[in-house]
TrEMBL record:
Compartment list: Cell membrane
Signal peptide start and end residues: none
Domain of life, source organism: Bacteria
GO molecular function: transmembrane transporter activity
One Gene Ontology term, aspect cellular component: plasma membrane
Topology versus the membrane: Multi-pass membrane protein
Alphabetized UniProt keyword annotations: Cell membrane, Membrane, Transmembrane, Transmembrane helix
Protein's UniProt name: Putative ABC transport system permease protein
Chief subcellular location: membrane
Domain called ABC3 transporter permease C-terminal: residue spans: 316-430
Amino acid sequence: MWLYYFQLGLRSLRRNPALTALMVLTLAVGVAASVATLTVLHVMGGDPMPHKSARLFVPLLDNGPLQGYTPGGDPRQRDRQLSYRDASNLLRGGQGERRTAIIGVAAAVAPARPDLAPFAAYGVAPTSDFFAMFEAPFRHGQGWSPADDAAGADVVVLSAALAEKLYGTANPVGQRLSIMGFAYQVSGVLAPWQVVPRFHRIVGGRGAFGEEEDFFIPFASMVRHQSEHYGSTNCNGPPTPGYQGLLDSECTWIQFWFESAPGGRAALQAYLDNYADEQRRLGRLPRHAPNRLYNVMEWLEFLKVVGNDNRLSAWLAFGFLLLCLVNAIGLLLAKFSVRAAEVGIRRALGASRREIFRQFLVETGVVGLAGGALGLLLAFGALALIARQSKELTVVAHMDWAMLAATFALAVAAAVLAGLLPTWRACQVTPALQLKSQ
């Protein structure tokens, strides 16, 4: 019977193609606007590592002075990075399954090829745990070892794009490359690695939706060479001059991540609190502010990666969809009202109100499917226009299978919702009155 109603719906839509096209277009425009906006919001606010994001934590310690401090203030006003002293101590503490400090690096790369001039590249200096912690995919070779961390070895992992630029399709593992004027040996090459958002390097990096890093060198190697870092630095006062002065200061300029065992958050929090108490006995951390741990999703919320403006845009898009639904309701009322005679005859021949209701509801569902198909095409077009605005928007303006299914579900649900009132009105037709008028 449902198939029969579906066939009736198709025939009905062909009777008045202009009105049908107007209904489908109205629904498609509303669906496309809401789905395109929702897709961008879905990608921006998605969990980049759903299987382990609850076990990755950013620790924050407030090492600022008492002057100007208001207890219980907004935690977002606090520093979002650690000092070198705290980062080094947490690395040596050995807590969690893995741990890494991360510093941004802007460096001059001097290729061995005579046809390539030196150029600037941007990377990070983490520890060896970084690659396993964030599951970076390797195309060639591997990362460096903890022994390389301890020695501050001059080894480097290249991104796929930089390796292709320097060596083409050849495997460059074992080659030497001049970075910042020092000879680094290539230990590995990553496969293309697009994490959305790039949660591990938002503060001081290329942003949550920026391009991937060009290269990775050991944290200790960068410090050993006293290389200038790339990123934000927050100091409560001028540090002692020189690189060692920066290392000894309370300036915050290093990102830090822990990976805990399942259920290990409480142990990490206890360790962080004990560490802060120990540092206070040494005369540091005078504010006695709460020590905080943020997992991946909490960190994205803390940094407001998806801002209120993005959420407002989504609500406005759904408001536009509601306006389109109101228009669709009016068109369906007009369409069904001219079929009162048909409904009266069917009722006189024995069709129940329930059967009439099913028939017209299936017909609105057919409109929804057509509107979903057209809305999907319009949504792809809207996302393509969004992606052309900037490289960052290119990362978020793409539709996955979940949003693809949601497009059709939203279109059919919207059409059925719009058809409830017109369908109910059609079911109220009195057969006797319609037969007398014929």
